[in-house]
Amino acid sequence: MKIGLIGCGGNMRGAHVPRIKDDGAVDIAAVADTSEEAASALMDRWGGEVPFHSDYREMIEDHRLDAVMVSSPHAMHYEQVDYVLDRNLHALVEKPLTISSGHTRALIGKAAARDRILLVSYQRNFMAPHVYARELIRKGAIGEVRGVVAYVTQNWGGTQGWRLDPVLSGGGMFLDTGSHLVASTLWITDLKPLEVCAFLDRVDKEVDINMVVAVRFEEGAFGTLNTFGNASRHDERIAVHGSKGSLVFHLHQWRVKSVLLNDEPLKIPARIREDTPDAAFFRMIRNGGRGYELPYFALAVSQVSEAAYRSVVEGKPVRVAG
């Protein structure tokens, strides 16, 4: 399989390149980045030279590719992925898919029309505990979901480079690391957000560092989705409470520490195995899309984010776009 990479920064080098190498049957055919230094560092991690392009369009036109993986500043995702899909290539995109719900909806529609796989790299949705929890909730193991309490902390605002530039990032901690939290919560529970009320603190930055978001969902459920970007380290919890029980996730320093079902350790069946977005992406391309779902939950993430930022500006609860 021949793939092209857009963006050669730390995330592509540290997360995606090792997973590409683990597959053993995927070749990086070319890379694109505005920094040749970043591209050189990626090639060192890959273990060999590959063609470098400063323009991703040139890379796509000059090479026969099966797919493209995108890890660039958030505000660039729409233009880049739109171009990828126009060339009938599959796309794996770092979160968030775009910074606009309209753009997100357009990309999902184009992927569907062209029968291409468009996968968003939300790692938690491929972790065995999260996959099994989603299955249990869908089967009614904790009854009707009545409420969720979720937060993520990180020492986020110190050395984040372009992420602190609102033109490139589109938003702060809530749109970045918080996107994982929102995506996990919505994907696991299948809750449909109706209205949000949000508060934020920029902590002397140009984007949000801390944000508290209260959400009203369909069927009467309520919840909170909170991000704290000036904490000492990563800590993350999602507590889902239903009419018959509860599920509580705890991640610390990017690892799952515990998952409790009614305050007892969750026992995960052997049939559910750990996966990664990259491995799933390659597998779905090879098997003709079996197991693939259009990323409508990524649209819900985008809609919640837009409504939350609007709520801050307007100083009142805001309806989530349908």
Please provide a written account of the structure.
The chain has 322 residues and is an alpha/beta fold. It has 2 domains: 2-122, Rossmann fold; 124-265 and 294-319, 2-Layer Sandwich (Dihydrodipicolinate Reductase, domain 2), CATH 3.30.360. 35% of the residues lie in helices and 28% in strands. The strands form 2 sheets. Strands 14-13-12-11-7-10-9-8-15 form a 9-stranded mixed β-sheet. α6 (128-138) runs parallel beside α8 (177-189) and α8 (177-189) crosses α10. It starts with a strand and ends with a strand.
Q: What is the gyration radius calculated from CA atoms?
A: 19 Å
Query: At CATH's second level, what is the architecture of the largest domain?
Result: 2-Layer Sandwich
Overall, the morphology is globular
Number of strands: 15
Secondary-structure-derived class = alpha/beta
CATH class of the largest domain: Alpha Beta
CATH superfamily of the largest domain: Dihydrodipicolinate Reductase, domain 2
Low-pLDDT runs = none
Global mean pLDDT: 96
Number of domains: 2
Order of helices and strands, N to C?
EHEHEHEHEHEHEHHEEEEEEEHHE
Number of helices: 10
Helix content: 25-40%
Largest sheet: 9 strands, mixed
| β-strand amount | 25-35%
Distance between the termini: 38 Å
CATH topology of the largest domain: Dihydrodipicolinate Reductase, domain 2
**How do the strands of the widest beta sheet line up side by side?**
14-13-12-11-7-10-9-8-15
